[in-house]
Amino acid sequence: MKSSKKKILNEEDIESIKRKEEKHKLKEEALLKKKNEYKENSERKEQQKLAAKETNELLKRSKKKKWYQNTYNITYIICGIILLIAIILIVITDNPIPLKQIPIIDDLKIKTHNENSKWKQGISSFWKGKNMANAEKIFKINFSKEKNIIKCSNNNNKIKIPKNFDTRISFKDCKLNITNQNPKCSGSYAISIATSMSERLCIFSSKNQLNYKNNLISLSAQELLSCDKKNKGCNGGYLNIALNYTKFNGLVSEKCFSFKGNSKHIKCGNQCKNGKREKINNYCVVFGENEMKKEILINGPLISLMKINYDFLNYKSGVYKKGINEKEFNGMHAIKIIGWGENEDGKYWIIENSWGKDWGENGCAKIAFGQDFLFEKYAYAINFK
Question: Pick the catalytic residue: 211, 353, 362, 383?
């Protein structure tokens, strides 16, 4: 009996233990659940904090970007305003005074130039009372209308080129007076060819002891203006076309058909009858400094072209160097190259102009080397042999 009672107690104990274990288990599960919930809540809060932080960062970046965008827009607007002002200023300044309202001779400008430059300007009768529009009309000369011009050849490499040379000194008996082309006539091509032809013929005749009375015969530039119908007279022309005229037709003397600087009213039939004509044998192109110097040294002046800058119109003396921002005329002007030299201002070419004797240095000019003028590169030489 005692043993049976003891067994029932054990079962109750077991049940009690089970209940306790289940209750403990439930508590643990509840506690774990709370822990998990707490952990999840903590993680959620952390995520929310991170999200809030990222949102704040995005907002800050957005504000910063917007600030930069606004700054960029403001900068762009300012640049646009500056550009607009610049364009307006360019339009105002690039819409210059008409050339006909700009006098060539301006005493104040000449004085200012002479105070700030080694080479000097001065007043000449050729440009007296004239304006820039008048000047522009006389620069209508071109070098060649053909491509296949004969190249001059001089194989004499033993020629010693002096430091200074001037045909006016070395060939003084073959020097003509300076011609005034007339500021209403673009006839520099006719003058440079006729005078160069005259002087070269004199030099050639003297060297070969030909029977020319006094050797120097002034040939007619007016004939080229009035009679060469392939050119345009006082409205300009091509050097090679005028040279072709002297080759096939020749020129009468200046005495026979004197220069008037007018092709409209001075007709071709105005020259004297039975006037003696002088023709060139041929002409060629000389290239480069040394070849040009050798040709001048042996045979006399060369003929070429140059662009004319505004400041050159009033050239008076010294070695000419064109101004840095100095404007130039569209067309070109024919000149004679008669020598070269060197002084304290550097190396220079000597050119003869056709604007009268009181322009420049007795009608001539010293022009500094290396200014990219066309005549520094090539020129025509007239031949009589």
Answer: 353
